[in-house]
Specification:
Gyrase A, domain 2, four-stranded antiparallel β-sheet, 9 helices, 44% helix, globular
Amino acid sequence: MKIENFEIKSTWREVADAARTTVSMEKGTKEPTDSWKKNILLSEHSPIRQLILKWKWIDLKYWVSVHFVRHKIGIEHFVSTQRTDRTGEDREIKSQSSPVSHECIANAQAIINISRKRLCSSASKESRQAWQAVLDKIKEKEPIIANVCVPECVYRGFCPEIKSCGFVDSEKYQDLLEDYQNTDL
């Protein structure tokens, strides 16, 4: 599995202008600071939905793709078909591990929400790896977004799973929680 065609389709200036609109201010001219970016991402105010990201997984296992298509809000999915009439291959004999291409376009809120579920130790290892590959691409261009993408236990400050993996009792959890809550850059 690999990531292709990663791009950020909008700018922080657009996010800032949307934020200014919500408080009845005129558009600004200054670029937002990193501190402002992190704060608006952590507060999850609506203007973060202006920040649009796009990527494509290549050779993603079909069953892993199914995990991601369950995410619906703020994201669109385009998955290569397994239809016999389109591929010339009998769909009935394809394995759930057969590779597909899975393209997504999502806003920053969706990225945060997906991270909460797909970075959790209860998620499959393969889904965590596929999502981490997306976050690694995000981190290359917008590290502030990647830095607010945490598993559900860090986001909430406790583990909401019926059967906890025990991560919340670790030193690594405490370090990650502290980093997440720290608004200093």
